[in-house]
Task: inverse folding
DNA sequence: CCGTCAATGAC
RNA sequence: CUUGUCAUUGACGG
């Protein structure tokens, strides 16, 4: 068959539309697209524009281009085709976080960043179709600003009981088996699954490495079931255009807002209980000290994406909108 | 319309 | 030998 080779952008759009219109479809024949020079080349350019440092092999972008980019990409393609590709160990680098703690990065070699990037380009087209409205982190065309708008708007509409969740180190706690199972719900391609397992395994027995190109996408997939649960809670309690629960998640930063009227107290409790269950199933720890339920009508506050949310009174004494303070 | 290269900021 | 994703803004080029 002489099917004219379609461009990567068209392919990704086609995959996305299929996934969107057929929610149970399992994609096959994806590996060949991951291995295409066009895909690898785009992944290389994306990696290069971050000006990142080399992995454990010390090979830089300048080194690669001095030896010839074309040969570099063809070498990767050959190894992928012959199933001899093996990712190298990640280079471990500890960097200080703001609060005096350290963040452990797992930095893949540049050629492994290219492979992960190629895989990400294909898988993202599928899973973007499955992600929920309230999920904002690491997603194309989504900004922290719109996530904050969603929360602010919910507060204005009287959602004043807030579950402010803190997840401890959830990148590190992703269970590979559970994650692969979620990927396999949509991907019926043994080569792709095998490649993904190789990539996960060099990062350790569990967790996705901070520094990995596909880690953000995988982390969103891992928590997609939580987003779906909250979305269902919203739709089940909906009365026409009125909703009584809202949520927004940006990576591990999650807030759930429930209507402040007394008759919805049960919904707040139920949502919290369901969240505990979902995170338990996933092996993700809720930080019990920093997770809190606040009541905005009692002058309590919460923080989301660096903004402090509080309810203020207007000069007339009526409840005004929400207010954002500090950065 | 397509591309390249700087910044910034959320996690 | 501070990694990654995403977004925004700006400059320039064909």
Result:
């Amino acid at each position: 068959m002489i099917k004219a080779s379609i461009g990567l952008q068209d392919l990704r759009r086609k995959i996305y539309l299929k996934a969107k219109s057929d929610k149970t479809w399992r994609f096959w024949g994806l590996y060949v697209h991951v291995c295409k020079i066009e895909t690898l080349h785009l992944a290389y350019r994306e990696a290069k524009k971050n000006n990142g440092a080399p992995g454990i092999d010390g090979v830089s972008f300048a080194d690669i281009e001095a030896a010839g980019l074309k040969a570099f990409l063809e070498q990767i393609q050959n190894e992928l085709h012959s199933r001899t590709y093996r990712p190298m160990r990640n280079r471990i680098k500890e960097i200080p976080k703001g609060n005096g703690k350290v963040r452990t990065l797992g930095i893949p070699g540049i050629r492994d960043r290219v492979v992960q990037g190629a895989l990400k380009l294909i898988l993202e087209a599928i899973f973007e179709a499955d992600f929920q409205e309230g999920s904002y982190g690491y997603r194309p065309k989504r900004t922290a600003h719109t996530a904050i708008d969603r929360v602010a708007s919910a507060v204005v509409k009287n959602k004043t009981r807030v579950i402010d969740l803190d997840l401890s180190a959830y990148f590190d706690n992703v269970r590979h088996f559970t994650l692969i199972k979620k990927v396999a719900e949509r991907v019926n391609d043994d080569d792709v699954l095998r490649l993904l397992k190789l990539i996960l395994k060099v990062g350790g027995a569990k967790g996705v490495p901070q520094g990995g190109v596909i880690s953000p996408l995988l982390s969103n997939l891992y928590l997609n079931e939580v987003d779906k649960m909250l979305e269902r809670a919203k739709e089940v309690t909906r009365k026409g255009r009125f909703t009584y629960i809202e949520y927004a998640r940006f990576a591990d930063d999650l807030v759930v807002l429930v209507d402040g009227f007394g008759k919805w107290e049960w919904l707040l409790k139920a949502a919290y209980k369901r969240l505990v269950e979902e995170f338990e199933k996933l092996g993700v720890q809720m930080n019990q000290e920093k997770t809190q339920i606040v009541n905005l009508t009692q002058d309590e506050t919460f923080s989301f994406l660096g903004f402090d949310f509080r309810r203020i009174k207007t000069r007339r004494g009526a409840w005004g909108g929400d207010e954002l303070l500090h950065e």
